[in-house]
Every structure is written in C-alpha cells, then in structure tokens.
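Hi P.,

Sorry for the delay on this. The queue was packed all week, but I finally got your sequence through. Input first:
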Amino acid sequence: MGPNGAGKTTIIRIILGLFEPTSGKVEIFGKEPGKTKEKIGFILHKTGLYPKLSCIENMLLYADIYKVKDKSKVKFLLEEVGLYERKEDKVEIFSRGMQQKLALARALIHDPDLLILDEPTVGLDIETKIWFREYIKKLREKGKTIFLSSHELTEVEKVCTHIGIIREGKLIEYGNVEDLKENYRKNSLEDIYLLSSKENIRG
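Then the structure:
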C-alpha cells in the first residue's frame, strides 16, 4: 500500500524483470527477476489481452506462450471465472469486470506459485469486487502466494495476512495485519496507514 507515486507499480515491474533496480537486490524463488517466469502469474493495469480475439482465443494463445499442454485447463478456468458461456465473444465487447476476470484466468493458466495483482479491482462494480476478493482468498487457501497492490484498504484488510506500506520508494511499515493492529492499538488498516505515514513524515 502507498500513495500515488510511492513506487508500488515500479516494485512490481522490478519483480517481473521489466525494470532494473537502481540499487539493492531482488530475488524471486532464489533467482534474479525474469528467470522464474514459469512460477509467476500477473495482472497489471493494462491487462495484456487482445481485444480483437475471442475469449477462448486469448486463453489458448497464452496457454501456448506458457507451453501448457493440457488445454482442458482453459475450459476449467473459464468456468471458474464465469466466462465459459462467452468463450466465442471478442474481448473488445467485454465489460471492465469481464476483462479482469479473463485476465485473472489467463494469469493462472500455467498454475503459478506466485500471483501478482496491481490494483485488480479498480473500476469494478461492487459485486465483481466481492467476487475478486473471495476468489483471491480461495487461491490463498490453495497455497498460492498473492502479492497485491491496492488503494482499497477495506479490500486489503479482508484478503491480506501481511501488509507493507511504502512512501517515496521506502518501506516504512511491514508486518502481520493483526500484529500491526495491536502495535498501533488501532482496529483498521486505514488508521495504521495514516499513522505510519505521519510518523514517517515527522522523522
């Protein structure tokens, strides 16, 4: 979590091997960024979907990119996100919520261990936000690690076990959600976020 311009998306791009860090070192599964792509799924601000292709064509394309031999995963994931009935429709006619669900299915096509989500619920209606929240929790329960960047503190509080707060590229707070609530003697992430930021500014 962090304000606009704090460096959230930059960190994600470094983890994915798209940006080089100016200092420090990042390791993903014990390797440099970019060398563990087969273990990572992601959704960035731009979904990376091809609007002129159909829903299932997008999925099959990415299945080929990730060298997924078992194409039955395509049907399974589209059913999971509720899009199998729309599999032949072009993505360009999909709503924002439908596109995000398809992007999520695509990100899971190779069964990654780490799923990176950059503001996945921005612009979604309430029902779709709730669906995303519950599905993310379901993935977490299956053993997936979810790395989530979000401004929506209520959603974060309901999904995340640990949080990190950054400001101007620096990690100013990190820990287990319940431990942080106890340390700050606060009941909400919003209070913790505001207090930690104020303390950092004073320092």
